[in-house]
Design goal:
This protein is an all-alpha fold. The chain has a single domain, classed as Four Helix Bundle (Hemerythrin (Met), subunit A). The chain is built from five helices and no strands. Helix 1 packs antiparallel against helix 2, helix 1 runs antiparallel to helix 4 and helix 3 runs antiparallel to helix 4. This is Hemerythrin-like domain-containing protein.
């Protein structure tokens, strides 16, 4: 393989890695939703296990977005100033998602040992809102930033994968 194709593969990998992280986060949220549904249907995990699952998902999503806000977005804004509005919109989404994550965590922290319909409706509504915003956010981000990431050469990202591109299996 010549050095030009090696460089192309390496650069393309950044965009591919972002897609992989988004797929992984979508799967984590779907697993959490399934666990919540099972709990409210009376056949699932106890509340403490759902809280742990939620904490794992929330931590991963927060790490991803914090890594973008602090690491990737400033570099992208510097190299592609025309994307500053897009990056600002994505940061706004991050704040909204943080708020929704906090609401979901509070609801799961107060889950009764025995499921009840009133709590089920609130929790499912919060998960649906989180899912809708997250999906829309990821699609917008993928459309706007995959090609940008593929064109960037950030030497320190070659050495150490940045937080926004980490999947827990790789930590």
């Amino acid at each position: 393989m010549n050095s030009r194709s090696e460089a192309g593969s390496r650069l393309t990998a950044l965009g591919t890695q972002l897609l992989e992280v988004h797929i992984w986060l979508r799967e984590m949220l779907e697993d959490l939703r399934d666990g919540i549904d099972d709990y409210f249907d009376g056949r699932g995990l106890p509340p403490r296990d759902l809280r742990a699952h939620c904490l794992s998902f929330c931590t991963a999503l927060t790490r991803h977005h914090t890594g973008e806000d602090r690491g990737a977005f400033p570099l992208i804004a510097e190299e592609f100033p025309e994307l500053r509005k897009v990056l600002s919109d994505l940061r706004t989404d991050h704040n909204q998602l943080d708020w929704l994550l906090g609401n979901l965590q509070k609801l799961l922290d107060s889950l009764p040992e025995e499921p009840d319909p009133a709590t089920a409706a609130k929790v499912r509504e919060e998960v649906d809102a989180l899912s809708a915003i997250m999906q829309t956010h990821f699609i917008y981000e993928e459309k706007k930033l995959i090609s940008v990431l593929n064109s960037m050469d950030v030497p320190e990202w070659r050495e150490n994968r940045p937080a926004f591109l980490l999947i827990d299996d790789e930590d």
